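Quick one, probably user error.
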C-alpha cells in the first residue's frame, strides 16, 4: 500500500480516536469527582448543632493526624479538610494486602453570624469538634420602649 495512504489512515484514525476518548475522559473525571463527594459524606460523618449562642460541628475523622486536618471559616462557610496517605511500604517490607487507602475529604457548612475570632477546634480520639460562637447583636442605639 502507498505510504501516503497509510499516513492518511493513521491521521484520520488518530483524530477519530481522540474524539472517541473525549467522552470517556469526561466520564472518568465526573466519576472521580462524584466519588470524592460521596467518600467525604461517608468518610467524614458530621453533626451540626445550633445552640442559642454558638454552633457545634463534630466530625468523625479516625486515623487522621491532627496536622493533616485544616479548618477554615470564610464568607460564612466553614470548611473542614482532611488528608491521609498510606505508604507503599511498611518497615522495609512489601505490602501484601491493603484496605486503608489514601483519603482526601472536604466538607462545607454554611453558618451565619459567627464571631470568627473566637472559633475553636479540638481533635481527640478521632473526633474533630469545632465551636463557632455566634455574634452578639449590637444593641447600641436601640431604645427600649417601656
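Nope, works fine. Designed sequence:
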Amino acid at each position: 500500500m502507498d505510504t501516503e495512504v497509510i499516513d492518511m489512515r493513521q491521521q484520520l484514525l488518530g483524530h477519530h480516536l481522540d474524539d472517541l476518548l473525549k467522552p470517556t475522559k469526561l466520564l472518568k473525571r465526573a466519576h472521580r469527582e462524584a466519588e470524592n463527594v460521596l467518600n467525604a459524606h461517608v468518610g467524614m460523618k458530621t453533626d451540626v448543632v445550633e445552640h442559642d449562642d454558638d454552633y457545634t460541628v463534630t466530625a468523625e475523622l479516625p486515623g487522621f493526624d491532627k496536622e493533616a486536618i485544616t479548618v477554615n471559616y470564610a464568607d460564612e462557610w466553614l470548611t473542614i479538610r482532611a488528608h491521609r496517605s498510606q505508604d507503599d511500604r511498611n518497615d522495609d517490607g512489601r505490602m501484601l494486602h491493603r484496605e486503608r487507602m489514601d483519603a482526601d475529604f472536604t466538607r462545607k457548612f454554611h453558618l451565619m453570624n459567627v464571631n470568627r475570632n473566637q472559633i475553636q477546634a479540638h481533635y481527640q480520639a478521632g473526633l474533630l469538634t469545632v465551636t463557632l460562637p455566634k455574634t452578639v447583636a449590637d444593641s447600641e442605639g436601640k431604645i427600649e420602649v417601656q
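The chain has a mean pLDDT of 80.
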